Automatic annotation (TrEMBL):
Segments forming domain EamA: 4-139, 191-294
Coiled coil: none
Pfam (any one): EamA
The species this protein was found in: Algicella marina
Regions that span the bilayer: 35-55, 67-89, 109-138, 150-173, 185-207, 228-246, 252-271, 278-294
Keyword Transmembrane assigned: yes
InterPro entries in UniProt: EamA_dom (IPR000620), EmrE-like (IPR037185)
Identification of the protein by name: EamA family transporter
Record keywords, A-Z: Membrane, Transmembrane, Transmembrane helix
Cellular component terms per the entry's GO annotation: membrane
Domain of life of the source: Bacteria
Length: 295
């Protein structure tokens, strides 16, 4: 088994835990506050990990202009795409928008070819399309009438745009890791993660001070719980970045759809919810797509 496969699955698992903890924080913090907590507490952990690896003898990977360009694009794109996704929930046709945002993996494949020159094998493209269909089915397709009336709505446009910008973030992270001049995949992933999360923490701190200054203090006071969000967020991001350093970002994002399977299993095992038929079909499609992808 190629190393990027278990790393990606672990990243999806940690991300699922982080989402669960963020959900619990929403009773104390605003949506922006919960998002800020993730970056605020993840950044110092990533910097400490990078320092530990360098002190242990890992070579300094040699940052250059290409690294900074890709990393900055990835860091800021992730913030913007997340904001767009949050904005969808305030729109009338938000379900249509969320459905279109699920095209992120396809967008990643297109941008990977255009920006990084990484073409995909036909089998890989088929696997990606299968997992995307599985994600859309699992998420719950809007009714036929809603889809027909909403396809030209602002929600659809925002959904597509968020998918494109999330794809830009993935390409930025892979491009940054590949641009580093030396070191194995782990140090390149950790250094990229440390830089990106620091940029995101600073950018969001500035935004929060302007838009929701009271939330900054609330995040600081909630550090025992918010710190765990940062820890699992950092572990999940480390997995994504390490996988991006090893493999085409589109393949990584396709395999990463297994996160939705973890989410459904969590809701069933921890909260006693019952599986819907659409969720069972979606899990089957995602599983089949992953099998096609990794074989």
């Amino acid at each position: 088994m190629e190393l990027w496969i278990p790393i990606t699955i672990a990243a999806a698992f940690f991300q699922n835990i982080r989402f669960l903890m963020q959900k619990r924080l929403t009773s104390e913090l605003s949506t922006l506050g919960v998002t800020f907590a993730r970056f605020l507490f993840a950044a110092p952990l990533a910097v400490m990990l990078a320092g530990t690896l360098l002190a242990a003898g890992q070579p300094w990977p040699g940052m250059n202009a290409a690294f900074f360009g890709y990393a900055l694009v990835g860091a800021l794109a992730q913030i913007v795409a997340t904001a767009l996704l949050v904005a969808l929930f305030g729109l009338r046709n938000f379900a249509v928008g969320v459905t279109f945002s699920k095209t992120e993996t396809v967008m990643t494949a297109i941008l990977s070819a255009l920006v990084l020159g990484e073409l995909m094998a036909p089998g890989g493209l088929v696997a990606i399309l299968i997992t995307v269909v599985g994600v859309v089915v699992m998420s719950g397709l809007p009714g036929r009438g809603a889809l027909a009336t909403g396809i030209f709505s602002g929600a659809a446009g925002i959904g597509i745009l968020s998918g494109v910008i999330f794809a830009m973030a993935s390409i930025g992270y892979r491009g940054a890791a590949l641009a580093l001049e030396q070191g194995d995949f782990l140090i390149r992933a950790v250094v990229t993660l440390a830089f990106v999360t620091t940029v995101q923490a600073v950018a969001m701190a500035a935004w929060m001070r302007w838009r929701e200054p009271g939330q900054v203090r609330r995040v600081a006071r909630a550090w025992p719980r918010a710190g765990l969000v940062g820890l699992f967020g950092m572990l999940g991001s480390l997995g994504w970045f390490a996988a991006f350093a090893l493999q085409n970002a589109a393949y990584v994002k396709a395999l990463g759809q297994v996160e939705l399977v973890f989410t459904v299993l969590t809701s069933v095992l921890l909260f006693g919810e019952r599986l819907k038929a659409s969720e069972c079909l979606g899990i089957a499609l995602i599983g089949f797509g992953i099998i096609v992808l990794v074989l």
